[in-house]
Structures
1.
Amino acid sequence: MTGRRTVVPFGPQHPVLPEPIHLDLVIEDEHVVEAVPSIGYVHRGLESLVDRREYADFVYLAERICGICSFTHSSTFCQGVEGLMSIEIPERANYLRTMWGEYSRIHSHLLWLGLFADSLGFESLFYNAWKIRESILNELEATTGGRVIQGVCKVGGVRRDVTNEFLSGMDKRLEGIESDIQEMVNVFLNDYTLKKRLVGKGILKPDDAYNLGAVGPVARGSGLCMDVRTSEYLAYQDIGFKPVTADGCDGYARCEVRCKELFQSVDIIHKVIAAMPDGDVAVSVKGNPDGEYFSRSEQPRGEVIHYLRGNGTKYLTQFRVRTPTLTNVPSLIAMLAGTELADVPQIVLTIDPCIGCMER
Amino acid sequence: MKMLKTILKQFAHKPVTTTFPAEPARHYDATRGHVVFDPSKCTSCTICMKRCPSQAIVVDRTAKTWTIDRFRCVICNQCVELCKFGAVSLATEYSVCGTPAERDAETFAITYVKPERPKKDAEDRE
Ligand code: SF4
Ligand code: SF4
């Protein structure tokens, strides 16, 4: 027997949501039949500022699209302008960008793991994850000058160099961090309560993931081997890269992918530091961008695309960002159909939503 | 068992948090803290005003003042890089907290004096 359908609003203010998104959940007997999303609560119109700031200054704005993937946004934007103007950046800058990109991936994943533990009421695990994240942020601050907004990318390279002695120090400290992460990940992957809340919840079949355009850990948690880092950008080709995937297609698989990516990132940083070439970190840039360019990167949450168009002046004429959360929302809707109402907050969190980034 | 060890460790541990601003915040040599202005070096060229991404700086050439709105400044280092005269620098300490009502934009009177043309030069021209 089916009950009557009711609509339960979820968000935009909800204890598990750090940022506002609204879902109208159509409920029948405590089961979600359909979820209707509405977005647009934090739209800032950041992209349209592009014709009022010089392209070199817009890097600072691009970085502020998101407070977590800030580094990747700035490097993707710089990559785009460099592509437009056919600038070859020095190898060392490429390696440093890779290193900082991976550090920010670790900090973003730790942040997500912490928030997720918090959403289950597992406070001590939350603090533990964020404690480890703090040591990653310290490394970022010591090398770039900023904890979360690094401000270190510029068109033509990077602003700051890191001495080789400091790099080897970072390499050593990372080992300690890795063992802390190992201890924490054990809890995430083996704890009874966490498993109860994750295994078999929010199923996204590989076909659905592919057709709905899932990216990042959401796609890889459904067994799709999709990662921009396998393509030709930054230093990933030189050091070899193989994406982490999991076949569970559920919330646990997505959590597993993120946990394993922590170790993968640590691994990449070790390799990058070992292979760090010497030389300059920036080239001087002359002229203005002309033409159009698609710049792609793998953010902690998935693939991000920056579209840029210039007309030969200091100001770009068009700038457009497609962030991973936006492409993951259709997958989220597919995941929510058929789940229990009590699981909705956790399932929403498993896509690692970043609404500020999505609405720009 | 492992948990017991963790719990016991916590008793002997000092708090990890500090009581900012009573205790200074931890920072590194690279930390971007706040903008420091040296009024004796600024030539009022207005480059910093034009290129500040958050439009935090206002340079008034007639009144000879240099104003920064600390609540707009995002401490990006751009003005430091662009100032050819070394009038702006970044300190590693964070600036004190407050609300816009308590802390208005800070204005500095520019005290830069154009150096006298070296004597020899002047003689040459005569
Ligand atoms: S601070 Fe530097 S850049 Fe700004 S007006 Fe003065 S001299 Fe020019
Ligand atoms: S640090 Fe950046 S935001 Fe602050 S005044 Fe200088 S240019 Fe403007």
2.
Amino acid sequence: MTTVNVNGTKHAVETDPRRPLLDVLREDLNLRGSKHGCGEGECGACTVIVNGAPVCACLVLAGSVEGAEVTTIEGMDNDPVGTEIVRNMANAGAVQCGFCIPGFVMQGWDAVQRASGKDPETLRAELGGNLCRCTGYAKILEALQTTAATRPVSPIRARRPDPVPDLRLNGYLRPATMDALRDALRDPGEKLRVIAGGTDLMVQNRHGLETLTLLDLSGLTELTRIDSFDDRIEIGAGASWTDIRENAQIREHAPVLALAAAEVGARQIQNRATIGGNLANASPAADGVPPLAIYDAQVLCLSAKGERAVPIQAFITGPGKTCLEPGEIIRAVSVPVEHDRQDTVAFFEKSGPRKAQTISRASVACHIWTASDGTRAVRIAIGAVAPTVRRVPEAEALLRETPDAIEAAADLVRQAALPISDIRASADYRMDLVQGLFKRGFLRATQA
Amino acid sequence: MFPSDLASDGALFLRLARADRAHARLVSIDTTRALAVPGVVAVLTAKDIPGDRLFGMIQRDQPFLAEDRVLYDGEALAVIAAETEAAAREAAALVEVTYEDLPVAGFPPAPGDPLLHDTRYCIDMDLGFGTQADAAPAHDIEIAFETPRQEHAFLETEAGIAWIEDGVLTLSVGGQSPHFDVAEIAAGLGIEQTKVRVLNPMMGGAFGGKEDMNVQFPLALATWITGRPSRLMYDRDESIRVGVKRHAFQTRCRVTADAQGHLMHADVEMLADAGAYLAYTPVVTNQATEHCTGPYKFASTKVRTRAAYTNNGIASAFRGVGGPQSLLGIEQAMDVLARQSGIDPFELRRRNLLKAGDLAGPGFRLQTDTLLAPLLNAAESGALWQGRDAYRAAAPAWCKRGVGMASVWYSYGLGAGGEAGATVRLSQAPTGRFTLELGVPDVGNGNLTAFLQIAAEGLGARIEDLDYVMGDSAGPNSGATHGSRTIYVVGNAVAKAASELRAKLDAGTDDPVVEAFFQPVQPEMLVRGIPHIDYNYIVQVTALEVDTLTGEVSVAAIENHVETGRMINPQGVEGQIDGAVAQGLGLALYEDLVLEEGRVKNPNFTNYILPTLLDLPASTRTYLYENPDRTNPLGVRGLGELGLPVTPCSIANAVADATGLRFDRFPISPQAVLDGLRQEQGK
Ligand SMILES: Cc1cc2nc3c(=O)[nH]c(=O)nc-3n(C[C@H](O)[C@H](O)[C@H](O)COP(=O)(O)OP(=O)(O)OC[C@H]3O[C@@H](n4cnc5c(N)ncnc54)[C@H](O)[C@@H]3O)c2cc1C
Ligand code: FES
Ligand code: FES
């Protein structure tokens, strides 16, 4: 039995908590307005609002929304923002087949409120996670622009989930406290899989979720904290990319991480996906890793035995491989802080097959500054061009000595790459790309 | 409610067991273990099909379920019906198949490839007119390239339900041709057509990809045999793996001209990848053949078109069928000619426009003048073209900018000999409300709104006074929604019905029902399907930026100038153009179905790249020019497709303007751009 609060009504559903929320909404609650377009977070047709933030319902576990407030397209009927969007879409002729529209209304609901009073680019940038195959987007965008101009406000607000006790069902445990988590880690069993945002795990196990034994971290509000200390920022493993890109301390002290956070997937993914999941998944293309590498972050790993700190570069040992032991999870990531940086050049450049919601073919994180004692710091890391993220010490040393040797540094960046060819790009192109991205990032950051 | 939203209580969940070979002999199919899965109600193979086991719109060559051989990866072998989706999935994986592997026929065909049907080439046409002049041309240009298979990627995959109602097997599915589906299903089940009814509710997109049968027969078979309702929706990876695609082409287009830019001879050669069965291949190759020399006058032409059977899935209709694959040849050649001859690309086209009575393309006589001159004038004086120098000059240091144009024609309606006409019914109830009944579905292209507008106007009524029955094989046969024909053919039938009913009502009838039939006048046939009664015209100007560090192309702005015929719903026309442009942009820059030995390597939205909102230009302007068409009483044209084929052409020409490069493969990949730039530099 799982209890979900949808559109203001509590529903007790006889269902496995490991099913996707989308299936429960459509099949068990007969709320068929949220559409199934892909089941892998790519199309946004299933977008619903959980605790004030749009997410892809196909990548949310039913069990993880217990205690949360879910709003679906059906619940937009009496929302002032939702009704305004629908009216403007009708007036603009934005609806062709209509299949993508519920998703655009839900994501648009958030987008128009975020973009209200800002330039049109802000609104466009919020909409990369919704595909439409019919309209070419022009009239959908027009309808949302019209709505944003009216500065609408919805009574549905961001909120933290209600505290719910530990959920313990066959094959599914969602601890409510750190103590319960430690208990669970004491005797993990061989099959135990940790799930946080689920945006990697649910895609990888699309049709086999109910066969997994899951430890769901999403009920632990402690894991979502971002705490700032004099010498470091501690980012809870459960912090989402939206939390990270909007955090003032991170933007100030680890700006490249904030820039990278804004490039992960699109908004629905950023609202759900966590930094801990990104690290533990250990994809060579993970966008969170290069920025953490340049800041020499430490991964704080928790087990029943206690906690240990592992340098980020040692934490990821190969594609999909980490040094986590059975019964060990990431509790937080610790990013060292340096004060009074001068003459900062900071950028994160990534390039994938398209401009939004795209997996990196190559990425470059770079932060250059002059420290308070006058020494120059140059940090460069590259992603998606080797089995693991690599720092580029040769280029760093060169630029410390010769600040404008950009061409030569770019060559060194290229030489540091050890890429493979796959469906997204050939090895040769990845070499060219990482070199080009370094140069472009530098030019953009210094010419702006 | 979309087809995938429909579910009736107690419906069985269907899944298809599919072959994981691109080419093999089927030695045996063992369903024992699948049947033993708890909850499984039936596992049906070809042997369980009571009637004809083959189907096909043009040629009945495709088995509903493979029986003795497999011709493409993912070909359906068995229909599983179960009480739960999980049981159906489990059972589908437990159907045990023994194959004898056979070599795979790829594209382009290589010597020694196996023969899949009695002939390698299902299409082989050699057409053209006149003889090439002896005089040496001042310009001799050749463009050669290949285009990939393109996935329709309708946002709702193939889906539907079936049930039996009063003895009639009823389906509600995402399809485009309900009357045709009825005939195929009835034949397959060996029952009367009156025992089958197919409904096409509003569905999540089609674009030609739901013209062929998809979920229809599995649903029909399972429900007919078990007597229970059933439901089926393809997974996204299944849809991309087995759904029909746009044909991949290899095209070569050679054009000669004199020093004044007058076109002399065109020599076009096209080879299409038909895939495993015929499907709509002849329509696609006809369209490519008909349009391949553009709306331009040549002294002589030679057009060779072939399509080869391969094990690369199935290729069929996709919006703008045959258009991009052929028009990219002539439109790029015209662009090169303009550069070589120093003649402005608009002027070069104006100099060569076809007129009524001229021989066109592969050798048919054009009925009416092309309507391009005013569009060319407008586009030339438009903001984008006039501002091109300033736009180029403002490029960031690491980018090159370019502005390109293309002007294309694209037919509407079905080709000579192909249009059977449309019947619609219009009636008035005692309450005063009207009901419009027609068979064709609205596949998301907005034709319903247009029909209601036409009927309301003809009746002198308000749209609110009309009810409708649409996409229902029980309704009058108005054909299928394809070929940009519905507004043109069905729309005229609606207009006729409205004026007849109005006349009847004015005369005080006590039988306020009319059934009207409309069939457009057919042009003289060159070959079946060629030519069409008339053509649409569009001129497009595109501004874009090429990043010389990464090879990425970003389209900044697109301006369209479109001849619309009489406009029923201008917003709807703009929407059709916008949507087609996005699909054309996808073909030009992103969409590439990767096949290896007949297997799709990217059957998901993570790796089959569709353009997002951020990949489309921040600015798109579409200017509509309304000239009522003279070939039909309503004066309308069908505008659903034309925005697609023009877009890769103008993008290719804009990339060439920015970089001087032409590409032999679409989509244009950033890697190819970088390689090209490097070679230029090395020169
Ligand atoms: C449409 C789409 C677009 C995407 N785009 C990008 C992108 O642009 N860039 C990018 O980097 N990624 C992208 N991703 C991948 C994914 O969103 C990120 O990697 C994300 O950060 C994973 O976090 P999660 O919380 O969802 O992980 P989950 O799926 O919950 O977990 C991922 C893995 O980490 C383990 N895990 C999770 N949390 C912990 C923990 N605290 N301790 C130990 N193990 C843990 C899980 O067991 C699992 O193996 C995309 C995904 C989708 C679906
Ligand atoms: S169904 Fe496509 S993102 Fe969820
Ligand atoms: S309107 Fe059809 S997918 Fe957007």
3.
Amino acid sequence: MQFEIVAKCHTTRARVSRMKLAHGVTMLPTFMPVATQAAIKGLTAQQVEALGINLILNNTYHLNLRPGMNILKEIGGAHRFQNWRHNLLTDSGGFQLVSLSKFTKITEEGALFSSPFDGEPTMLTPEESMSIQHTIGADIIMQLDDVVSSLTVGPRVEEAMWRTIRWLDRCIETHDKSGKKDVQNLFAIVQGGLDPELRDKCLDEMIARRDRVAGYAIGGLSGGEEKDVFWRIIKQCAAKLPEDRPRYSMGIGFAEDLLVCVALGVDMADCVFPTRTARFGVALTFQGPMNLRLGKHAADFRPIDESCPCPTCTDKMSRAILHHTITLETAAAHAITQHNLVFQARLMGGARDAIVNGTFPDYLKTFFKNYFGEAGYPEWCVNALKSVGVDLLEGNPGARVQAGAGAKWERVE
Amino acid sequence: MSTSALAFSLLPSDIAQFSPRLGSLSLRRRDSSTSSVIEIKTPNFTTSTSRGVIPHLSRDHVRSIKSIRWTGVPFESFLDRVPPVPVLQTGSAPLHTFLGYDRGQHILAMSVRDPFDGRDMPANGKDHISALCIRGVRKVTPSSWKSYFYSCKPDVVVALSDVPYTQAPQSQKRLQKSIERSTVWLTHLLSKSDAPAAASSPEAPSGRPNVLVNLVGGTDERARAAFSENLVEILQGKEQEQISPLRTLDEGVTGYQFELLPLRATLRAEYGQVSQEQDSTSEAGQLSALMRASLHSLPSNKLRITYGSQTPHEILRFIRDVGVDLFDIDWAQRAASIGVTLDFRFPVPKTSVQYSVCVQPKTRGVGKADIGHNLFNFDYAHDHSRLASTFLDGEAFLATQNQNSDKLPCCHCGACTPQPFASTLLHDQVTEVREHPTSPIPPYTRSYVHHLLHTHEMSSHTLLVMHNIAVMDAFFSGIREVLQKSHSEPDLFATEVDRFLSTYAEPETLFAEAEKDWAKVESERGKGRLAREKQNQGGGEVEEG
Ligand SMILES: [Zn+2]
Ligand SMILES: [Zn+2]
């Protein structure tokens, strides 16, 4: 990997960088769409590429079950399997193991679980995770980490943190010997729950291994925690991680979360949210999410967003026809998925330009004003951005602030 | 003012009443901005839509598939709102605009009912037919149908007709009523009543819309003949005034269509369920006879369309025995929904052709080959070859460019010959524009589609629909080539049809197997999802699955 910082925000910790991998250059910060099963919902790889996306994610846990490693070996990896010519990242499989399998037991050796196919006890070790990811062949691969829910408290959190460090060492050993180091890049995952001291210890240990890892992920923040705690952990980790390594915040996809993370120094994020929400008829816009299942869109002939360059909006596909087809025709989900992925890409592309042009603080203000102006700014975003020198409320004394977390979701009646 | 005139012409040598024929259908558009012609060589196919869209294809895909031209749009799904939403769309081509079809590429034919929905329906009335939308049954009157047509401005409108979708068989009296109503409703459509001022109408230069009529009369040949006679009867007095300057209803009709689904239902009720290949041959024979009964007294130079043929075998028979010009390929589109990739050609490829490391379809007990592969089958999990053995993929085709011996044709579909889109979006000013790699993209493989089917990924259907449409496109161009050659070799088409029928098995078993596998994956997924939802209660992790 070649990693080079192109520009830095003069106010916040945001930066623009150029990450060159075996399948091309990806400019950071970026959002990575999730192709869990080696497909972005309903689209072909050529369609995804045309959206201006050049880094996607596959899930190791899922691909290991289906199609399985023999098939991926035969065909020569996941790039060829899904006909994707650009960059690819795989997770370690550990996270899904814990979230999808009830009977997973963590031992020092690895994660013991019962196979979803035959119920046989199966062990996913750090070495095995590396070997699976080597077969998949993604440009960025993740260490196996000991995942605990962000709501867990007590000694289990510290135990998991130390184990994650030991497993990192085993992953590094395996990866170093694999002969794949020049084409696949291993990322470490910072753990330590919501405890700043544990996070700090973990950061120290992982930074000590910086010469043997290509980048860092911030793990253990799965959405259940308080947003106020979330951003402080992100900030702490991003601030301490080495400047010359990409920083990846796992499982982040809401627009406001993405921009806050970018302002705190995060370079990459992934989430199923934009593709998942598309299938339920929610289109993302800079004025907030739009629920196309609502009756009010039934005879609205405007596109989702007049200014959007996505295939759906440039074709002037109306809210009315999307309302008529969503949840009943897969083609409607494809159309909104294309739009939502372009929304995410525009959000991040706009951030990159603003950072380069020295206007990122304004970019943040404009985004939040349009996105939350009416409903009120989420308090945690205001606080998080204030901590890096951007006051969203500046010059806007009448602005409302809401204590809750989220966007103004339109509900289906 | 915009005009679109649909013209149909046959080769002069092909005007015999009931024989295979080569024709050409052209729609000429003249309006303020464009002057274009869409031409369709016949025999050919039409694509069918569900809720106005071609299932599984996004609009960029629809545009990129050049063989998608004539597209049937059943209107009934829009009846859940009053007025139906497409009626409110503005512009010179509201239906095209609303549904995203390109006026330069797509001919839209609007009908009330979905010709592939054979569910029992409440009886039609004297002044309405029963149509189905998501909120239930709706009545459509001849006047409302005419107003929908004039508001939506499709290129072609199918006249309202009284086809009973009630328990077969129908009584003599019911058939008579069907004929009378259908005649009256066609008269109304062709008349000036309820028609808007000419300036805003999508009329042909002749001053009339392009109208297709369902030839009704059920399974009674005399009733069918009677309806056709109504069409060509020279009208007098008040009746003639209504449609003036036309003298007969038929003069106002662009083409004839046959909806086979209700006919099949009636035939099966009358003769018992058919399932054997022998019987379906005879069902095709019976259907052909019924179509001929309708066409007998009608001019032979008009367009003939069938809806509801179920196999390529039937299509060949209907071309050979009736001289049908346009066919839906709904069965091939549906095959994509149940995981079947089509793999056959007409004329049947010579046996000398190499299939180059690509497994051919299964041979059934009778020694005939399947017309495709059920990709749900675990045999395909490790099959990393292209979708069809009878076509090369784009990459392999290029690699054998200089080879002039018997070479397979190329399947140019988005699955076998993936093409990068002409332009790639850029979302900032710092990303370097990447040149597209010049090497061809290899085909999507059977193993990949197998994987997508078993993981319930929608992309499987997208790839298969693109491929199946391409196979059908090649099928029809093969038919036209053979018909062309038949002019100098008179028995060629019949010989090739026989060869096809003796080479390929009817797909009933293949489709049944695929449907069973599809249903199994659906139900397993249902169970898995329930289990996951249970587990996730309490605001746990959201996982893509
Ligand atoms: Zn858009
Ligand atoms: Zn193909």
4.
Amino acid sequence: MISFKHVTKAYNEENIAVNDVDFTVEQGKIVVLLGPSGCGKTTLLRMVNRLESITDGEIIINGENSMDLDAIELRRKIGYVIQSNGLFPNMTIEENVMLVPDLLGWSKKEKRERFTYLMKLSGLDPEEYGKRFPYQLSGGQQQRIGVVRALAADPPVMLMDEPFGALDPIIREKIQDEFLQIQREVKKTILFVSHDIDEAIKMADKIVLLRDGEIMQFDTPSEMLAHPKNEFVSQFFGKDRAIKSLSLHTVKDLQGIIGLGEVDDSIQDTKTINVHQDLRNTLSMLMNQEADQVIVTDDEGERIGSITIDLVQKYLHFEIKGKLSVSQEG
Amino acid sequence: MERWLNFLEVNASRILELTVDHAILVTLAIVVALAIGIPLGIYLTTNEYLAGVVLQVASITLTIPSIALFGVMIPIFSLIGQGIGFLPAFVALVLYAQLPIIRNTYTAIKNVNPEMRDAAIGMGMKTHQRLWRVEIPNALPVIMAGIRTAVVLNIGIAVIAAYIGAGGLGVLITQGISRGDNYLIISGSIAVAILAIIADAFLLMIQKFFTNKGYSQVTAER
Ligand SMILES: Nc1ncnc2c1ncn2[C@@H]1O[C@H](COP(=O)(O)OP(=O)(O)OP(=O)(O)O)[C@@H](O)[C@H]1O
Ligand SMILES: [Mg+2]
């Protein structure tokens, strides 16, 4: 758990990067710091592992005030992933990944086992990649190693500063999925910086939306999309925030509320979609094909119904717009 | 050509002996220069103000003509009865070697990617761990380049040391000039050139040996 208690950071008198920030990252959850460039996301993150000093307020990590801890020990207990070039080019992948365990004095055998386990998690072969140097890996592989390295000593807390920022969109989505998969298993307390709205919606249990160092809203992604607290928040998520919020709902959610359509066998060449797919992807699939329906299948591949643009729209209206209109009245 | 071979036959052992003297003088000077220059260069990365001063002084030293610097050494070392010979030449060479060594060490460490340094601190490395595991390994190619410059520079300058009685291959050249003996001049010059080429190739080999694939690639990209 990481608690920010009225945290302020002033680089100098005029330059207040973070102003009276107060929120908590619960045990095992991902909180995404989101906001425009220069709003103080990186500064906030770096105060946690004391790469930046705290001007006012305090940060409590798993019950201990960060300033009461030894900086070196604190950092070794916090996994830290930075945007790019975080890997050391003079070390092999294995040396890179096992750096913190090495600093902590683990035995050779412990390190070896942990390395094998971590590489399996990341889907890279430990034998093949362990002896390579960072330049011998693709950008996506390097990024995975960056994440795995932060997990090496099994730290309870992770700080991730735009870890997937340098990747192209397709690889980025893939690595996001992989990471969420890993997180389900390891359940770390994570503070994650992003300036990509879609990434934040996808990764976050809760989002902290910042502007000029101040919190504009601290909420779950769906709450923030449905009930933006002020003009800045609704502007930030844009006019298409209803569509964005579709990515938080699956075909299964729709099925549960308004039900799926019949399968029309007269239509040729319709595509199929898994019932756990999110509605945003479903919608774009529907809009990119000739036929006006997509067949929905369950995990066994059985056809369980069909979905159309009309159905998505209906769902959007009842489920999401309904909430939106409430917020506008309130 | 025959006379040339004749000359070599008669003088080979002397040339070899002077080459060894030359190499010893330069090697000792470089070893001492490294012992001073590398720690100093590393220390200067933590002290901006001192870095400016030291690099300035070292640059000025390098612009002093070698014959003049050797000249200055004589009266100074006369005070301890060592006015001419090995010691003043050795001290002058140490001074000349400082600039390339200090400057390259300083810039190489300074230029280590700040994100890499940040990652090292953020992962909980202590200052000396960061220095040995990250900064020095990544700075090594540039530091080695500085050492090679210093060695080649010193081999050339040590020729002048013959004028203050420090021996070495300069002896052949100065004798050749005073006697008007072209064979002496040419064989001295060629020996100096060969010594420099061999020394540089040897250092390059060491550099390759100590540089693993990871950072040889990094330097190739620079
Ligand atoms: N070392 C520093 N000294 C002075 N001001 C700084 C320093 N680092 C950051 N700032 C200022 O603090 C503010 C917040 O910077 P920060 O890096 O936290 O922004 P960010 O939200 O991470 O932006 P980005 O999305 O561009 O990475 C900016 O106005 C920046 O100019
Ligand atoms: Mg930033």
